[in-house]
């Protein structure tokens, strides 16, 4: 058990379903590696389930130094109270200083429940995590190497930095897609630490009878080409032009928050701080002004083409190629040129 909390490990919840890891733990381990190295402590993944030990090898290859393994037949499927009990007892035993969850359905259920039971803080939907010093403005007490939990606030209009210097562990959920996974290191090894589930005689009030999954037809994170529209598209009907362009070049359709709020596009296509973060090879922006909240979700695209009637739109500052014009004129011409094979 760690006695000096500043020497505590950095933990990442290795979310899995039916014995398969999603991309989220790999993303979190990428950021976790950075945090742990700065603190000079081990990076560990917390793997919970039944018969999931083989997944530890993938977590080591993704950057974990340790895997804290909790296996029990009662943990085969996710049930919040059972997972919370097992996780909380492991935290009490090891005393990590940082615990990170993905801002998924599972992470948003489990993270706050653990924080509530341990009476510590949790910052939800973070878009960045950093280590820095913090001075309390009231007491002037200085805390070193504190987790800076960064997230949009007030509907994405400001960026807030939140700290939890006193009641540890420092906990956060992190939005999907905002952290970059490390390149896998095949054959990398680590230490497996087994823990008791502490579920013997524990009342689990929920029984999972059936699991019904509805898979999204949109995979913006995996798309190499994205055609995205904003409020400037003008209508839901005009968005069909973007679908036609995306189909012509083998891409996916995304949208800014403004377009989603106006009902032009589904929420699952929203890109930005309050949506998904993407890094495609080509991003075509149509009628998007380029508010900072949107740019945060796509500015790492390899190539950006912006189409906007306003030559001073902020989107042009990060675009590799800019077209000042009406997208209702430009996009049909692009589709025609692509289909005809003209360059």
Could you explain how this protein is built, in words?
The protein is α/β, with parallel strands linked by helices. The protein has two domains: 5-195, 3-Layer(aba) Sandwich (Rossmann fold); 225-340, Rossmann fold (3-Layer(aba) Sandwich). It has helices at 23-39, 56-61, 80-94, 105-118, 239-249, 257-261, 292-295, 327-340, and strands at 10-13, 16-17, 20-21, 43-49, 66-71, 98-102, 122-126, 128-135, 142-153, 158-162, 170-174, 191-195, 225-229, 252-255, 282-286, 303-308, 321-324. The strands form four sheets. The chain has a seven-stranded parallel β-sheet, sandwiched between helices. Strands 14-13-15-16-17 form a five-stranded parallel β-sheet.
Please give a handful of descriptors for the protein shown:
single chain; 343 residues; alpha/beta; Rossmann fold; 2 domains; 7-stranded parallel β-sheet; 5-stranded parallel β-sheet; 8 helices; 26% strand; globular
Offer a concise description of the structure:
By secondary structure, the chain is an alpha/beta fold.
The helix/strand series, from N terminus to C terminus, equals: EEEHEHEHEHEEEEEEEHEHEHEEH
Quote the CATH topology of the largest domain.
Rossmann fold
Look at the helices and sheets and give the structural class.
alpha/beta
Rg over CA atoms, rounded to whole Å, is 22 Å
CATH homology superfamily name of the largest domain: HUPs
Helix content: 25-40%
What's the level 1 CATH class of the largest domain? Alpha Beta
Any idea what the CATH architecture of the largest domain is?
Answer: 3-Layer(aba) Sandwich
* SS element count, helices: 8
Shape: globular
Average of pLDDT: 90
Largest sheet: 7 strands, parallel
Strand order of the largest sheet: 7-11-6-1-4-5-12
Number of domains: 2
N-to-C terminal Cα separation, in Å? 65 Å
* Proportion of residues in β-strands: 25-35%
- Report the count of strand segments: 17
Can you tell me the residue ranges where pLDDT is under 50 for at least 5 consecutive residues?
Answer: none
């Amino acid at each position: 058990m760690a006695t000096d909390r500043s020497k505590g490990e950095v933990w990442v919840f290795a979310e899995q379903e039916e014995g398969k890891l999603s991309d989220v733990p790999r993303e979190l381990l990428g950021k976790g590696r950075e945090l742990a190295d700065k603190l000079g402590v081990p990076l560990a993944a917390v793997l919970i389930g039944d018969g999931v030990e083989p997944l530890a090898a993938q977590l080591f290859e993704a950057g974990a130094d340790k895997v804290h393994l909790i296996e029990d037949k009662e943990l085969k499927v996710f049930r919040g109270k059972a997972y919370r009990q097992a996780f909380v007892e492991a935290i009490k035993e090891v005393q990590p200083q940082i615990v990170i969850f993905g801002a998924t359905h599972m992470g948003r259920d489990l993270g706050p429940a653990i924080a509530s039971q341990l009476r510590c803080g949790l910052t939800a939907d973070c878009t960045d995590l950093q280590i820095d010093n913090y001075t309390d403005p009231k007491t002037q007490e200085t805390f070193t190497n504190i987790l800076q939990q960064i997230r949009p606030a007030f509907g994405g209009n400001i960026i807030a930095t939140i700290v939890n210097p006193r009641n540890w562990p420092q906990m956060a959920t992190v939005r999907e897609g905002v952290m970059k996974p490390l390149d896998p290191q095949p054959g990398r090894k680590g230490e497996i630490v087994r823990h008791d589930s502490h579920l013997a005689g524990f009342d689990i009030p929920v029984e999972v009878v059936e699991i019904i999954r509805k898979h999204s037809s949109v995979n913006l994170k995996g798309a190499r080409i994205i055609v995205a529209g904003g409020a400037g598209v003008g209508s839901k009907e005009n968005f069909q032009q973007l679908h036609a362009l995306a189909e012509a070049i083998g891409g996916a359709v995304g949208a800014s928050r403004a377009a989603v709020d106006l009902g032009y596009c589904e929420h699952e296509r929203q890109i930005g701080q309050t949506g998904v973060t993407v890094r495609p090879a080509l991003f075509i922006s149509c009628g998007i002004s380029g508010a900072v909240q949107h740019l945060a979700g796509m500015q790492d695209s390899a190539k950006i083409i912006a189409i906007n009637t306003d030559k001073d739109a902020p989107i042009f500052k990060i675009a590799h190629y800019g077209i000042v014009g009406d997208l209702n004129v430009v996009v049909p011409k692009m589709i025609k040129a692509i289909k005809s094979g003209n360059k």
